[in-house]
Design a protein that fits this description.
The chain has helices at residues 18-24, 39-46; strands at residues 3-9, 29-32, 51-53, 70-75, 78-83, 100-102, 110-114, 117-121, 135-142, 147-153. The chain is mostly beta strands. It has one domain (3-153): Purple Acid Phosphatase, chain A, domain 2 (4-Layer Sandwich). The strands form 2 sheets. The chain has a 5-stranded mixed β-sheet with strand order 3-2-1-9-10, covered by helices on one side. The chain has a 5-stranded mixed β-sheet with strand order 4-5-6-8-7, with no helix packed on it. Strand 2 (29-32), helix 2 and strand 3 (51-53) form a beta-alpha-beta unit.
């Protein structure tokens, strides 16, 4: 059975760690859930795989105007809704029928499923904040209709 692996990263705040690049090697697509921090982060990610990215609350430079606050991307037959702060779901609701909601902002990795929808926050892969671990996530998509999330601690 063919498996498509997607990388999910957030809150890089201008830092693309070598460990993140290593963990994302060989994946099919990267989702960045905001607080990119600088265009060079996306340029580095694009050298690995195609990137879908949204703007977070720290993404305010001219370069950030090219990115929306939310995005729905279809990968491997699944629709992924991306927004930076999960608390904004009330004002920016996910479209009907999405398989997963991808968010960032809290710097805390979390994986949960509610009513058949995966909610994934990959945590922060940027500069360490408080004593939180540095993390990113990968998603394995297969034809069985299952999305398997994995959170990876870096460093």
């Amino acid at each position: 059975m063919a498996v498509i692996r997607i990388g999910v990263i957030s809150d890089t705040h201008g830092l693309l760690r070598p460990e993140a690049v290593h963990h994302l090697a060989g994946i099919a697509h990267i989702i960045h859930a905001g607080d990119i921090g600088a265009e060079h982060v996306l340029e580095g990610l694009r050298r690995i795989a195609p990137v879908s990215a949204i703007r977070g609350n720290v993404d305010t430079g001219d370069w950030a105007r090219n990115y929306r606050d939310t995005e729905t991307v279809r990968l491997g037959g699944y629709d992924f809704y991306i927004l930076h702060d999960l608390n904004e779901l009330a004002s920016k609701p996910a479209p009907e029928g999405v398989a997963a909601v991808i968010s960032g902002h809290s710097h805390r990795a979390s994986v949960r499923t509610v009513d058949g929808v995966l909610y994934l926050n990959p945590g922060s892969a940027g500069p360490r904040r408080f004593k939180l671990p540095i993390t990113l996530a990968t998603l394995d998509l297969d034809e069985s209709g299952e999305i398997r999330p994995f959170v990876h601690t870096l460093g």
